[in-house]
Write a structure and sequence with these properties.
Blueprint: H1 3-32, H2 37-49, H3 55-62, E1 103-105, E2 110-112, E3 115-116, E4 120-122, E5 133-136, E6 139-142, E7 149-152, E8 155-158, E9 164-166, E10 171-179, E11 183-191, E12 194-204, E13 211-212, E14 217-221, E15 231-238, E16 241-243, H4 245-249
Parallel strand pairs: 3-16
Antiparallel strand pairs: 1-4, 2-3, 5-8, 6-7, 8-15, 9-14, 10-11, 10-13, 11-12, 12-14, 12-15, 15-16
Helix pairs in contact: 1-2, 2-3
């Protein structure tokens, strides 16, 4: 009857010794870093799992092999996409205003109280107000209507009635009215003392204060006022003195 307890004690003692040896071996292998440690650990764990008497040994075995932290993956910091180089918008140069009209008088030569035969020139090309034959030039003459001596302050250019009359230069209309002698007339101020006058018009298409462009139609050829037939009386005044329009008409252009 006493054999069973003795047998049990011997069995437990043998198991304890085996476990101790195994634990010692595992500890040794753990210190040496043997590659067979994991396989041995699994085998011993399976064997110990069959015996419920020594659960403490299983718990102790679990801490024999030190755990190593898994290497952490390092992620390169996200770089923001390169920004495209921005190009400053090209700004078109602002449109420049044409130079102001200026007249240069070569020499003064007075031929009447408010007229001069001096040669002059402009810093801009003049637009021909109307094309046609010159029937009465600038200067002294006999008036064709009254028959008396007269000084002609402009140049008469014959043209068909209704032919468009154009502004010689850009400027501002200062007069657009009917005059007893000049008929329907338009006077344009071009700045810097430069004026042009258009007389005997059938009608005018501008009004005082209106700004006109060079070559713009300001009226139509007519025969109003003291006139013997359809024509344009064209005059040029520089600082209040009238000059021979023929000088400018010789170099005038037909397009702006």
């Amino acid at each position: 009857m006493k054999k069973k307890p003795d047998y049990l004690i011997k069995t437990l003692t043998m198991q304890f010794l085996i476990c101790a040896l195994l634990l010692g071996a595992l500890a040794f292998l753990s210190q040496k870093g043997s590659p067979v440690l994991k396989d041995l650990r699994k085998t011993v764990s399976d064997e110990l799992g069959k015996n419920t008497v020594v659960p403490a040994l299983r718990e102790a075995f679990a801490v024999i092999e030190p755990t190593t932290a898994a290497p952490t993956e390092t992620t390169a910091p996200a770089t923001e996409p390169a920004t495209e180089a921005t190009t400053s918008p090209v700004t078109a140069p602002a449109a420049t205003e044409p130079a102001a009209l200026k007249a240069t008088v070569d020499q003064e030569e007075t031929t009447a109280e408010d007229a001069s035969a001096a040669v002059y020139s402009f810093n801009q090309s003049m637009i021909r107000p109307v094309a046609g034959e010159i029937t009465s030039p600038f200067g002294s003459r006999t008036h064709p209507v009254t028959g008396s001596p007269d000084f002609h302050y402009g140049t008469d250019i014959a043209a068909a009635e209704g032919t468009p009359v154009r502004a010689a230069f850009a400027g501002t209309v200062v007069k657009a009215e009917y005059h007893e002698m000049n008929g329907n007339m338009v006077k344009i101020d071009h700045g810097n003392g430069n004026m042009t006058v258009y007389c005997h018009l059938l009608s005018f298409s501008v009004r005082p204060g209106e700004k006109v462009k060079a070559g713009q139609t300001v009226g139509l050829v007519g025969s109003t006022g003291d006139s013997t037939g359809p024509h344009l009386h064209f005059a040029i005044a520089l600082d209040g003195i009238y000059y021979d329009p023929q000088i400018a008409l010789e170099t005038a252009v037909d397009e702006v």
